[in-house]
Inverse folding.
């Protein structure tokens, strides 16, 4: 059994006063608490900790509820079997998870966990009070942690929950650890079990992989073991050459997310990529998926988004990126220089996501290893037009509304109102009108030309 100096571990515990309060509370109730799983791994790696996982032989729900009541924090019942509950510290968002043993002993419980590096435990009492603490490590996780390698605790844990096949890649991406051949063999052997897992759980793990800055090598490895095709069967239809092209484009984007012609817009690009669509899902992850999937076309990409239950906003973003990327490709292939009116139409069609379309376009060009210099000027032209002209117009809003037209010209509601507004908006974006008065005059001229 590995003995580890406690002081080095204690220094990395979040909210030590709260942890001591928890220990005292447990001691008075005769409950022995063990710090387990990812919390132990993070302590041993000297990483910051935002959640703590505890295991206990007693009823975890009853214990957690009693402690939450004592400290006046939020209590959440998670599962009945095994009894599992969570306490959320409102001010710091630290979470404390408590779970009852899933087997007769702690060691047996640890053997049921996914990876050896997540199958270790520390007695909380010893950790807080003694100069050294024994690491409870029935699967050899400490050795794997030192060697930076990922092994399943057993083959049975994969059969029990096939999502663990995907979690290997998530931890490899997050920690930079190696996936050894025995682990790869198990992935290949059991990959066809992954579709048994709910789309929501697969989605969550995939998002965590895409969140890592250099996700491309791990997605490539997933493609080699064919685990990726269990998540996205459509990539088999696209063929290996297309997949290689897309993965190379993703590598290029992750290495250099800001294209050379747009370096002056780097702060805006970073802000765009970091904007959240829903909790823990931002535009950056969807753009990465778009780079991976765009060769299959708009409908295929959106179908995959819906199957993974990524939400309406994410599906709309995917549609905008892929569809308008194809339009932009067609424009640049046919024209030496994009006309101003065409550029304005592109910016209006893409809305806030014009920047994402340019990034997808650039990643695709780089993956093709084509001469991208001829497009640099066009990309800069589009960005400058938005920044200096179109963006400010959008921020100011429309010059007139449908109600203004109805009131001014005494018209009845109908489709003609929409046509008038579109015409006025065209003139506004082209810089021909700038005030509400000019907009109403333009509407009057349009009506007269229509014979109304």
């Amino acid at each position: 059994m590995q003995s580890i100096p406690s002081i080095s571990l204690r220094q990395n515990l979040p909210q030590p006063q709260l942890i001591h309060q928890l220990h005292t509370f447990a001691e008075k109730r005769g409950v022995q608490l063990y710090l387990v799983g990812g919390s132990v791994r993070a302590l041993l790696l000297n990483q910051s900790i935002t959640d703590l996982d505890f295991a206990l032989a007693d009823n975890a729900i009853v214990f957690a509820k009693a402690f939450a009541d004592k400290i006046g924090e939020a209590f959440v019942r998670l599962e009945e079997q095994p009894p599992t509950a969570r306490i959320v510290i409102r001010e710091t968002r630290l979470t404390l998870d408590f779970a009852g043993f899933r087997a007769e002993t702690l060691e047996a419980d640890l053997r049921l966990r996914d990876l050896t590096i997540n199958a270790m435990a520390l007695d909380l009492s010893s950790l807080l009070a003694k100069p050294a603490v024994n690491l409870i490590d029935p699967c050899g996780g400490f050795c794997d942690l030192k060697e930076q390698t990922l092994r399943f605790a057993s083959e049975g844990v994969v059969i029990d929950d096939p999502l663990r096949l995907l979690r290997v890649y998530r931890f490899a991406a997050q920690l930079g650890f190696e996936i050894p051949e025995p682990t790869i063999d198990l992935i290949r052997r059991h990959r066809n079990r992954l579709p048994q897992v709910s789309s929501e759980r697969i989605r969550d793990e995939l998002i965590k992989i895409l969140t890592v800055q250099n996700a491309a090598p791990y997605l490539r490895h997933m493609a080699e073991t064919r685990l990726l095709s269990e998540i996205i069967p459509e990539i088999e239809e696209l063929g290996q050459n297309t997949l290689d092209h897309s993965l190379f484009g993703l590598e290029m984007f992750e290495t250099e997310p800001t294209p050379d012609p747009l370096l002056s817009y780097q702060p805006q690009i970073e802000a765009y990529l970091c904007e959240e669509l829903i909790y823990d899902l931002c535009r950056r992850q969807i753009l990465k998926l778009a780079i991976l999937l765009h060769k299959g076309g708009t409908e295929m990409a959106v179908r995959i988004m819906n199957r993974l239950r990524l939400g309406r906003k994410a599906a709309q973003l995917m549609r905008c990126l892929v569809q308008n990327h194809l339009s932009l490709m067609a424009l640049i292939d046919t024209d030496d220089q994009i006309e101003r009116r065409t550029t304005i139409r592109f910016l209006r069609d893409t809305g806030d996501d014009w920047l994402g379309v340019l990034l997808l376009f650039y990643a695709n060009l780089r993956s093709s290893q084509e001469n991208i210099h001829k497009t640099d000027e066009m990309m800069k032209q589009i960005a400058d037009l938005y920044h200096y002209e179109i963006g400010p117009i959008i921020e100011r809003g429309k010059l007139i509304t449908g109600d203004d037209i109805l009131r001014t010209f005494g018209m009845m509601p109908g489709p003609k109102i929409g046509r008038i507004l579109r015409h006025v908006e065209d003139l506004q974006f082209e810089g021909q009108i700038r005030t509400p008065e000019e907009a109403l005059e333009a509407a009057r001229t349009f009506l007269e030309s229509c014979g109304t």
User: Anything to note?
Assistant: The longest strand covers residues 51-56.
